[in-house]
Every structure is written in structure tokens, then in C-alpha cells.
């Protein structure tokens, strides 16, 4: 089973690079370069994991994270940042993300986090049945 991932970031070059790496790892990748596009996709489709930048088009990723959880609380969310304060990291965790990664991370670390998030979701679903 491949992971169905939604990547949300306004940096098109970063999105293209990350998408290429995820496709290479047989992930099913969808992208949104604005919060509005992401909200529409989340409302109409399901994703195993959402990878979200902490700052998109000058908007706080924390507010975007709140809206994502309001629309659909179930996908695992990984937050990417390039200049997070400890306070923002704690807020992101309180809003439901368990993974906060620096944007300069090695792609293998992100791939591992995505795989673990999918396994966690599958265990949750099995316990619910």
C-alpha cells in the first residue's frame, strides 16, 4: 500500500523537488501551493499524511493546521519549517502534529516519518474495527 500524501507549500521549486523524491519512493503525491487549494482538496479527498510548511504565502501554518483539523481531523500531519521558535513548535504539537522537521532535512528522514505516520494510522483503523 503506498502512502497518499498531500504536500502544502508555496515554494514551487521546493514542491517540485520534494514531489519528485516522493514519487521515486512510490508515494502517491498530491500538491497544493496555497492554503485555499489545500482546504478544497482536503474537503473532497482523503490523505494518509499531510506535509505542511509552517509559513505559506505570508500566512501562519498554525492557522492553516487548525483549519485542516477542522475540515478533517484524521490525517497525520508533518510540519516543515525553516525558522521555528520553540513556542511555535509547541503550538503545532498542541494542534495535533507529532512531527516537526526542518525544511533542510534529508528526504530519507521525511520518507521515514511518512511511513511511520501511515503505520500509526493503520493501527488506529484496526483498533477501531
Automatic annotation (TrEMBL):
Record SMART domains: REC
BP GO annotations: phosphorelay signal transduction system
InterPro entries in the record: Bact_response_regulator, CheY-like_superfamily, Sig_transdc_resp-reg_receiver
Positions of the Response regulatory domain: 4-118
Record keywords, A-Z: Phosphoprotein, Two-component regulatory system
Domain of life from the UniProt record: Bacteria
Full protein name: Two component system response regulator
Amino acid at each position: 500500500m503506498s502512502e497518499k500524501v498531500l504536500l502544502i507549500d508555496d515554494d514551487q521549486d521546493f514542491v517540485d523537488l520534494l514531489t519528485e523524491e516522493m514519487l521515486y519512493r512510490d508515494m502517491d503525491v498530491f500538491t497544493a501551493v496555497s492554503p485555499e487549494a489545500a482546504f478544497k482538496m482536503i474537503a473532497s479527498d482523503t490523505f494518509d499524511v499531510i506535509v505542511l510548511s509552517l509559513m505559506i504565502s505570508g500566512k501562519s501554518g498554525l492557522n492553516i493546521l487548525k483549519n485542516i483539523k477542522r475540515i478533517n481531523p484524521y490525517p497525520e500531519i508533518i510540519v516543515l519549517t525553516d525558522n521555528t521558535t520553540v513556542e511555535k513548535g509547541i503550538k503545532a504539537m498542541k494542534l495535533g502534529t507529532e512531527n516537526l522537521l526542518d525544511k533542510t532535512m534529508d528526504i530519507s528522514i521525511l520518507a521515514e516519518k511518512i511511513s511511520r505516520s501511515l503505520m500509526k494510522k493503520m493501527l488506529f483503523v484496526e483498533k477501531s474495527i
